[in-house]
Amino acid sequence: MSYKMFKGFFLVLIVLLLASCFGDGGSEPEPEPEDPSPSIHTVSGKVSGDVLEGVTMTLSGTSSSTTTTDASGNYSFTDLMNGSYNVSPSLTGYNFNPPDTNVTISDADVANVDFIASVITYDLSGTVSISGGGALSGVTVHLQGNSTATSTTDTFGNYSFTGLTNGSYTVIPDMAGYLFGPTNIDVSVSNNSSASNNFTASAMNWTLRSYGEYLSSVAWSGSQFVVAGAGVLMTSSDGANWETHTPGSSITKMIWDGTQFVAVGGSSIIRTSSDGLNWSSNATGATAALYSVAWSGSTYVAVGASSTVAGVGMILTIVRWRGMVIAISC
To answer: Are 276 and 232 spatial neighbours (Cβ–Cβ below 8 Å)?
Structure first.
């Protein structure tokens, strides 16, 4: 092999060795790009209507969560990935429109997922019938309690109250000339309407009895009626059967104060009795006959004519008797 040929071969070998060591000129390969971070978004909205604060908002779907509306009715769910979701509000005693909403997150926030709340209301109803059969129309029925209202029975004796919220109520019927049984009904409305709150009406039939004496006052002690008048006093436990007594003087006004009967009339004294039969006289210091008396629960007030100044009335105020007059003002 000639020198020139050997030199050329040697140069080629060197080039090949360099190429195997440094490849395409010695440059490093570029790294592959990393995957971008997942997209994170928010779903938000507002509850308006009959309630704003305290509504429980439930998110379900790609992920799930719960939150509560603030004082302005606003709510939001954060850190949500792309996907399909459902949002629903709930609060005892309320309906919501719509009841729930489906939303889809696709690389963007979702706002204005709104709801309208309305309070759930109930009805209260019943009938009024006449004792012995038949309906009673025209009865005024009063509703008291959590709210107040009035209703009137129709030709079939029906009445109703609508738009009531949960709470306690009392129903009271009223019509001149009738007594009702029961006199009232207490009703608790709790997530349901209340029906069949019924009453029976009995006509007030008066029985006329004549006793030949002028009768001016009547009082009831809780167990006995006492009737008094001009020189006569009568007692009865049922208002139908009476016993006649002689009080010794005329009585123009009589009351029951919770523990005793108190009567005035015909003189300046005030008479008291625990049973309506046995009476005690109480001097008052009044200057003329007393005609009427009332009791406030702590003070009696008796009135009558004045013998000191003609034509001028007299007012006697007495703090409850204990055998003596404690205070008098005229």
So the answer is: no
Q: Which residues contact 316 (CB under 8 A, 6 or more apart)?
A: 284, 286, 290, 301, 302, 303, 304, 328, 329, 330
Please write the tens of the pLDDT for every residue from 282-330: 887 777 788 888 888 888 888 887 644 444 455 656 554 433 333 334 3
The pairing of beta strand 178-181 with beta strand 199-203? antiparallel
For the chain, what is the radius of gyration of the CA atoms? 47
What kind of architecture, by CATH, is found in domain 41-119? Sandwich (2.60)
Report the predicted TM-score, pTM, of the whole model to 2 decimal places.
0.56
Region of 157 (left: φ > 0; alpha: ψ -120 to 50; beta: rest) is left
Query: What's the CATH architecture for 122-203?
Result: Sandwich (2.60)
- Give me the DSSP letters along 124-137: EEEEEEETTS-B--
The SS3 assignment for 187 reads strand
